[in-house]
């Protein structure tokens, strides 16, 4: 990935690196210990949340790939939508 596509942004009160990532790069992060997911073309590094997830390993179903359908399932009545924002690290390359 071109590092110059990254920029530092303020997100929920924290500074973080916000990047533009290709599907190929996201696919490298497909494990419990390194888990990125795509939800509506945005990228979330949920590695630190995997062990906390109330739905257990369901969060890993599409690790490293598009998890939009799973995330928008009926098991997430609302709280999850705010929570996921803490893990946003960027967006999918257009
Ligand atoms: C990516 C695909 C995901 C799948 C397939 C999935 C699946 C599930 C399932 C099956 C449950 C139900 C647990 C139960 O009540 O027995 C659940 C609950 C929950 N999940 Fe996920 N999950 C995903 C991602 C996430 C993410 C990324 C977050 C937040 C960062 C999250 C937050 C929660 C929360 C907070 C609950 C408890 C119910 C609620 O209050 O909304 N999940 N999930």
From TrEMBL:
<feature type="domain" description="Cytochrome b5 heme-binding">
    <location>
        <begin position="18"/>
        <end position="93"/>
    </location>
</feature>
<dbReference type="InterPro" id="IPR050668">
    <property type="entry name" value="Cytochrome_b5"/>
</dbReference>
<dbReference type="InterPro" id="IPR018506">
    <property type="entry name" value="Cyt_B5_heme-BS"/>
</dbReference>
<dbReference type="GO" id="GO:0020037">
    <property type="term" value="F:heme binding"/>
</dbReference>
<dbReference type="GO" id="GO:0016020">
    <property type="term" value="C:membrane"/>
</dbReference>
<dbReference type="InterPro" id="IPR036400">
    <property type="entry name" value="Cyt_B5-like_heme/steroid_sf"/>
</dbReference>
<dbReference type="GO" id="GO:0046872">
    <property type="term" value="F:metal ion binding"/>
</dbReference>
<comment type="similarity">
    <text>Belongs to the cytochrome b5 family.</text>
</comment>
<dbReference type="InterPro" id="IPR001199">
    <property type="entry name" value="Cyt_B5-like_heme/steroid-bd"/>
</dbReference>
<keyword id="KW-0349">Heme</keyword>
<keyword id="KW-0408">Iron</keyword>
<dbReference type="Pfam" id="PF00173">
    <property type="entry name" value="Cyt-b5"/>
</dbReference>
<keyword id="KW-0479">Metal-binding</keyword>
<protein>
    <recommendedName>
        <fullName>Cytochrome b5 heme-binding domain-containing protein</fullName>
    </recommendedName>
</protein>
